[in-house]
Amino acid sequence: MTQLTHLKSDSTRAKTLELHIQSRVADELKRLQERASKDFADLQEKISAAEDSTRKKGKSAGDTLRDLGRESVQNDVKELRKKLEGRKTLKEVDEGVEKAKSEVVKCLRENDRRPLDCWKEVEKFRSEVRRLEGVWVEKIVR
Fold first, then answer.
1. 94 with 134: CB under 8 angstroms?
2. What integer is the mean pLDDT of 25-30?
3. For residues 140 and 132, what is the distance between their CA atoms, to the nearest angstrom?
4. What pLDDT shows up at residue 113?
5. Which of 31, 52, 109, 111 sits in a 20 to 30 Å window from 17, CA-based?
6. What is the mean pLDDT of residues 58-64?
7. Gap between the Cα atoms of 34 and 28, Å rounded
8. In whole numbers, what is the pLDDT of the chain averaged over residues?
9. pLDDT confidence of 130, banded at 50, 70, 90?
């Protein structure tokens, strides 16, 4: 008999828990629907206000939507510029790489008809770049 009572209480607890979960889900869905409705109403209000102002200015609804789109794109561009400015930039160029690069450029200018004569300078530049990459990898790994 105690097992039967125990099973009933487990069953009752499970049903109660299920009802509680269903109630919370229903409340959350209702809240989300209300929020979506409010957002939709706000957007409709903005669009109608924009249409009213454009009618006064002689613009069409398409022009208004284009202006709204242009404005949002400009805001996105401003945000991206801020993010780019906030990122780290290469503060200093490695002297060895810069020197090797200038030697390659100098050699190529002097031997514009015979660029293969600059193979030594190119190899020096490549080795400097490899060294710089190795330093960078070491910084990242540590």
1. no
2. 89
3. 12
4. 85
5. 31
6. 63
7. 10
8. 81
9. very high
Closest CA to 46 of 24, 78, 25, 72: 72
CA angle 41, 46, 52 (to 5 degrees): 125
What is the residue type of 35? R
| Of 20 and 69, the one with more pLDDT | 20
Exposed, middle or buried by CB within 10 Å (0-12, 13-18, 19+), for 125?
A: buried
First CA to last CA distance, the chain: 66
User: In angstroms, rounded to a whole number, what is the distance separating the alpha carbons of residues 70 and 78?
Assistant: 12
Residues 6+ apart with CB under 8 A from 94: 128, 132
Long-range contact set of residues 92-100: C-beta below 8 Å, sequence gap at least 24:
94/128, 94/132, 96/128, 96/131, 96/132, 97/125, 97/128, 97/129, 97/132, 99/128, 100/124, 100/125, 100/127, 100/128, 100/129
